User: Fold this.
Amino acid sequence: MNAPDLNHQATDEAIGGNEGLARQPARESYDVAAALNLVSETAAAIKAFDEQAAQALMRAHEVADAVKEELGRTELRAERAETMLRLAEAQIEQMLAAAEQVDKELEILRSQLAAKTAEFAASERRGDDAEAAIERIVAVIRAQLPAKLSVPSE
Assistant:
């Protein structure tokens, strides 16, 4: 009778099992290599990202510094403009005060001119009245002079 050879079967299974074991480290080695490759690629990507971030941060600092400098210059210009505005406002106030003074003086001069014009008109009337009176006197004298000239002297 042919009885199954259990020893041979066990040996075959052991050999086949060893083959699976031999394949298992190769697969694990491949998985480890793939994982290491993935970790390496991730580290490279993180490093590249960090470098880009550092460059972006450096550019942002440069831009911020440039903006800060421009802001400083703009603030100086604004301060100068405000100073000039205050000076202009002070000059306008002075000019307004001077114009108000001139207006008051002009009103006084107008009043004086009106008074002088009235005085002149009154003087002119008095002069006209005096001239008329002189003409009447002259007329009276002329009228009486021939009569007195014709009177015999004594």
Remarks:
- Residues 136 and 142 are 10 Å apart (CA to CA).
- DSSP finds one helix and no strands in the chain.
- The mean pLDDT is 85.
